[in-house]
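thread: overnight batch results

M.L. [08:02]
morning all. the overnight job finished for the chain we discussed friday. pasting input first so we're all looking at the same thing
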Amino acid sequence: MGQEINFKDSNDIDQNEWMRHTYWYRIERVGQNIKLYISNDGTNYELSRSFELPDGVEGTQRIILDQIIWTSAGSYVDWDYFRVTENNSNLDDVAPEIKINNLVDGGVYINSVSPEIIITDNEFGIATKSIKLDGVDYVSETEITSKGLHTLVVDATDNAGNSSSETINFTINKSTNTDVTATDSQYSDNATLEATLTSEGNPIEGKLINFELNDIYIGSATTDENGIATFDHKIDLPTGTYPVREYFEEDDTNYLNASEGTTDINITEENTSILYDGNYLVENSTLVNLSAIVIEEDDGELGDLTNASVDFEVSLVNSDGTSTPINTYNAPCNELGEAIKQVDLEPGVYSIVAKIKDNGYYEESETTAMCVVYDPNGGKATGGGWISEDSNKSNFGFNVKYKNGLATGNLEFQSKESDINLKSEQIDWLVINGNEASFQGTGTIKNMDGEYTFRINCIDSSVEKFTIKIWEGTDTEVDPIYKALNVELGGGNIKVKEN
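M.L. [08:03]
and the structure it wrote out:
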């Protein structure tokens, strides 16, 4: 701490042992030489004393007057000892310490901040201090809630005349809240996404809201006077539940903080139908075109039909009316929804089920059709006799064959119980397969208007059998108006001949 020096003069006038008067003082040190200057007005100083410090005095020193630390300002003091710093006339050269808690320069705070200001001095104490927020007096730890840019300035001066100053610039942003809703939708249809942006319960107009679907940015919309942003998006995802996120980015100009909202959207398959438009009658020398068209629901929003595909389930129709599965062929759709597959089939009558494959984009839908593969040199079939079902006796007679590559022949079928007398000379196709024959044609029924379609299957064997179906009109996909399936002949015979 250095060495204390007693420089009380024996000639000083004592008052209670010490002289008392008002003065200003200044101390200078050069090396070990100390000069004490005294002033009665704080402006004009005169040398009062000069002396040499003993050898060995060094380090930081200070003036002590009557065990109280004093400044160089005018004061009533009882002086007896002083301490000084080497080659320095300042008694206290340490400025006050300013500490600001809960606040940093350049900081951004949400809704409010309450800075704490602590001012301390290591020596003579604080003479003056000033705390200003945006130029207005501020009290430490008072909550600041006004949004925008702010400046806090703290100044302090100690009793030795040392000064400190701290300036902190900071920003208060207001928090925002975003709520999002999404309407469930189908593939290829529009889904409406809606976000509401508020701050402190009040809607915010004119702000951009960004939207994400399944973690992918899909677009943005601007909020209206009610703080609502609406965005319509055409769904290109398959069936499922997907996350929706909307977010508002921080607005530094208007001091609004960022926010976001999330929800889920449920996507279902698009409503569809399917139409078979492939071959119905094919020579066995050519490939069979299995073809179908996928048709979307007419809701004004069309999807990408290349996301659809069709399964063709092909089965051979047996004489007893049952079917034997042959194969399932898949064909992708083009942009028009057309699915086409060419296959090689043996002569026979085939049932075809065209089914939209369930892949999440288009709902499963199916249609059925009949395709006949025939051999134009396949032979002929003749027959005549009667069958009986539930005591209902029916007579039949037919003669069919191929001539010049075309199916020709005639048929007559009578069922008195059912009041049916069908006659035909129009044979559309004929299929000979071993001892079985199948053929189809159109004809008329006595006392009934319009045209009727019939289909015959017959077996030439030790137990001869006869099958007939009759439809009103030409649509054979509907239920027939009459049918007798795989019935043994009560009399007569059937002859099937291959070439």
